[in-house]
# Entry
Amino acid sequence: MAIEEVNAHGGIRGRKLVARVEDSRETTPSESITAFRALVSDPGIRMIIGPSWTQAGMALAPLAAQENLILVTPSMTVSDFSKTASNIFNTMPPEDLMTKALAAFAVGRGWRRIAVFASQHPAELVQGQLFASRLKELGGEVVYFADSLPDAPDVRIEALKVQESKPDAVYISVWWGNAPKALRAAGYRGPLLTRQLDRQRLESAAGALNGAYFPRYPKASVEFETRYRQRFNEDPALYAATSYDAVKLYARIGEELPDNNARALSTAFAAIEFEGASGLIRFGPDRTILNRSVEISQVAGESLDGPALSW
# Structure
C-alpha cells in the first residue's frame, strides 16, 4: 500500500519504487542468509525491509553491516539487532518496554508469586527472563520458570509443573497457542499475562487466552486503519503500520537526498522526526523507536481492541 501511494505521487525523484520479495524462512537462518544475499546482489536495491523474527535477524545483522544499503525491520522487537551497525533500524519499538510494564501491572494487581512459561527460542527466552528480572526488582517471586525446547508441540509436563507451583498468575512468553492450551488443560484457571498479541496468535490458542492481559503500543492512526480496510477489506495486521512507515520513511528521505548511499541514508534516518501511521518516528542512539507509551489491555473473546486498563 505504501509503495502504491509513493508511486501514485510520482515515486522518488521521478523513479518508481519496485518491491522485490525473497522468502527469508525466518526459523532457518541459513535460508534467511540465502534470501538476503539474493537481494544484495541487485545493485538497484537501497533498502531491505525485514527480517521479521529474532533468529533470522541476528544471523543477518553482521552481514548487513557490511553492505551499502539500509536494513529496516518492522517487527523484530530485540534491540540488539539494530545495535549491530549504523545502517540497521527498527520501526517497531523494543518489546522490553512492554514486558517490564506488564510485570509492573501484575505487581500492581497484587500478583507477586508468578510462574513464567518460556522456551529456549531466543526471543521467548529473553522476554521470559526480562519479566522474571523485573518482577524480582519489584518485590515479586518467580515460583517456576519453564523453558521448553523451541517450538515444542507438547508442553503438558511444563504446564503441570506450572500448575503445581500454585502461582498468583502466569506470564507466557511462548508465542504460539500450545502453552496457554496446555495450561488450561492442566486445570489452571488463574490470571494469564502474555506478550503482545495479533489475530493469528490469538486464534492458535483456541480460546485459551480469553481474559489474558497483554501489553501493546498505541494503535495505528485512524486514517491509516481506514485506508487499510478500504484497500484490503480486513483489519491491519500487528506490524502493518510499522511496515508502511518503513517505506514512507525511505521515500521521504529519498526525496531530500541527492546521494542515496548507505552512509547518507543512515545519517538521514537517524536524524528524522516523522509522524507515521504507527506514531512518532524518532530513533534513539541504538536506532530503535523512542518515546512510545505502553498500554495494558485484556482479551475479550476474539477481540484485541479492549480499552487500556489503569495500572
